[in-house]
Amino acid sequence: MFGLFNRIPSISTSELAGKLGKNLILLDVRTPGEYRGGHIASAKNVPLNKIADYRQKEAQPVYVICQSGMRSKQAARILKQKGYQVINVTGGMNRWTGPTRGGK
Q1: C-alpha distances in angstroms, 29 versus 22, 44, 57, 67, 88?
Q2: Burial call 7-32: b when 16+ CB within 10 Å, e when fewer
Q3: pTM surpassing 0.90?
Q4: Does residue 4 register a pLDDT over 70?
Q5: Residue 24, SS3?
Q6: Bridge partners of 86?
Q7: Which of 8, 28, 54, 86 could make a disulfide contact with 43, Cβ separation 3.0–4.6 Å?
Q8: Per-residue pLDDT tens over the stretch 47-100
Q9: H-helix or E-strand containing 37?
Q10: Beta pairing partners, 25
Q11: pLDDT band at 6 (very low <50, low <70, confident <90, very high)
Q12: What is the maximum span of the chain, computed from C-alpha positions, in angstroms?
């Protein structure tokens, strides 16, 4: 039973694509260089090494993405411990087939 409380919900990149544009908070936890190389337009870059400092005013779910899903899982655990409702995007940008934007 104990494991159920620590489980981070996750969605696929195609499920994420269906939610974009709905005032969704999406954090890209890759390095600034990776982020500049191509990211989802609405994603905010908060690198994994800075995730513990993340602050958000409104209480709404936070979606977390990285390159493959490993760093976002770590980031999701940190955010969950801070009391955020977090959803990890499995497969990360490797599985993302939607449009991306380069630069900041």
Answers
A1: 20, 8, 19, 9, 11
A2: eeebbebeebeeeeeeeebbbbbbbe
A3: yes
A4: no
A5: coil
A6: 62
A7: 28
A8: 999 999 999 887 899 999 999 999 999 999 999 999 999 999 999 999 999 999
A9: helix 32-37
A10: 62
A11: low
A12: 44
Per-domain residue ranges of the chain = 2-95
Per-residue pLDDT tens digits for 9-26: 999 999 999 999 888 999
Q: Which two tokens stand for residue 29?
A: 């936890």
Report the topology of domain 2-95: Oxidized Rhodanese; domain 1 (3.40.250)
Tokens 């600034």, located at residue? 32
**Strand order across the beta sheet in which 62-65 lies:** 10-11, 86-89, 62-65, 25-28, 44-45
For residues 6 and 91, the model is more confident at 91
CA–CA separation, 48 and 59 (whole Å): 21
Separation between Cα atoms, residue 60 and residue 91, nearest integer Å: 23
- Residues in Cβ contact with 49 at an 8 Å cutoff, skipping those fewer than 6 apart: none
Retrieve residue 46's tokens. 């908060």
